[in-house]
Amino acid sequence: MFSDISITWLFVVFAIAGTVVVLASIRATGLADVIADRTRMGEAMAGGIVLGAATSLAGVVVSVDAALSGDASYAFSNAVGGIAAQTLFLAIADMLHKRANLEHAAAEPANLFQSVMLIILLSLPICAVSGPDIAYFGIHPVSVVLFLAYLYGVRLSTTVRENPMWRPVRTSDTRRDEPEDGDEPDRPVAGIAIQFAVLVAFMGAGGWVISQVGGQFIERFSLSSSLVGSLITAVVTSLPEFVTTLVAVRRGALQLAIGGIIGGNTFDTLFLVAGDVAFREGSIYHAIDPNDLYWLGTGLMMTAILLAGLILRQREGPARIGIESVLMILVYLTALTVEVTG
User: Fold this and answer.
1) What's the pLDDT tens digit per position in 45-67?
2) Could you tell me which CATH number the domain at 7-162+189-341 has?
3) Are 229 and 74 in contact (CB under 8 A)?
4) What's the DSSP call for residue 218?
5) Which among 4, 151, 180, 280 is least buried, having the fewest CB atoms inside 10 angstroms?
6) So where are the chain's domains?
7) Crossing angle of helices 323-341/290-312, nearest 10°?
């Protein structure tokens, strides 16, 4: 569809698609906060499940489209590169939250549990890559396990939210998850949900366009699929998470900000499941490049650092941000240097 247009228009289309995805995500953040209040779901769960899945839709469209075209590296790197980029966004948001370290202020058991769940889910593809090259109906068994583990993890996350077995120590900098003033929790949510669904549709359409243009970048500029997937399409399709995180922090919905990133990353692991199903040449895990696995390790490391920060709850660190944010930035920059120069 985009093979006949000029390079200039290719960049224009790419920019327009990215803008549509970002603008839709800005509006979706506010709606997700309202949904959290009216359904009594809570910001952490709404961020992790509702907002996280919605803002990840553009990315999953990219991975599925790439897998259908037979480019396993593009599909895989888009997923794992997005996880690393989105975790980096939390470090940037930490810089903008002036009162205290973001991970300290947004203390929430559900976010801790989802971080643990994300580490488990990211470990499964490593087992698949290092294990035997098997596939049934073109699908590796680990993809089935990953999908089931995600569903079970979401169920347990709800239990942690509704019946926590422990609570974080409250300090003067801890932001409580409370409904916004003037928003009645029992008001109907159907109209808000419909608006949210329309925005999700726009994000999905934008993701498809981004995928097609990314494929043209690989072909016309002779770029590696790993480079385009991890640093171009992954970052662009992750911009909704960046914008929604900044908007949520500005609104004071700190649990929504962190929950949206962690939940979005958790949902992003399903890109690998969808990509494996769409990739018809066998197991996607055994058709990727070594650089793709490197980005998977980077996302795993950054998630572990984030989890440590959520447990440590340091109020202030270097440059008024937590030490975990400093480490996440350094890890990402290292991975970026390796990808570009490798």
Assistant:
1) 555 566 666 777 888 899 999 99
2) 1.20.1420.30
3) yes
4) H
5) 4
6) 7-162+189-341
7) 170
